[in-house]
Structure prediction request, 212 residues.
Amino acid sequence: MTDDITKGALLTLDLAGTFVFALSGAAAGVRNRLDIFGVLVLSFAAACSGGILRDVLIGVTPPAALTDWRYLTVSVLAGIVTFFRQAIVARLRDPVAIFDAAGLGLFAVAGAQKALAHGLNPVMAALLGMLTGIGGGIVRDVLLVQIASVLRAELYAVAALAGAGIVVANQMLHLPALLGTIGGIGVCVSLRLLSIRRGWRLPVASPTENLD
Prediction:
């Protein structure tokens, strides 16, 4: 019974993260004036790439996103809503950043929890949670021929790692799983959005002239 509840919670987090990352991908596609097919492709790629990477690395093959119809359905639904109801999405100050931050938090937490459920050690579980969170954004930016946000944005991967780390620490301290879930998502999303608002970022490389 407990295992069924855990699996259900992981699936819920996964689908929620899929939906908000799909919105992020679709909003980026609309912003770049893609046609509806391009928007839907970007929606699915942004939503499912992180989860596919996670499942492959922990040996869950074929990945859930390729075998469970709900992932594709959620991605397509988010893409269609964004494409035909752009005004609703546009009411948010910066829809791409907001949906991306939400997806980052949900996927980082879900990735860490799934890694722990499959017996990975705490350090690797936290790193896999981070990879789950940043994977979709990387693929989205690559398809749009942009430098990936994780390589230049304000505390992107760091925020994902912080959220995943809270989940891992929560389990090591044997605290209620819900506390780790809420705390991990809250810290990741807050850190990401605050870094955007206040311009927090890691030190940036400053190449000198005559580097050759």
The mean pLDDT is 84. The chain is about 80% helix and 0% strand. The chain has one domain: 2-198.
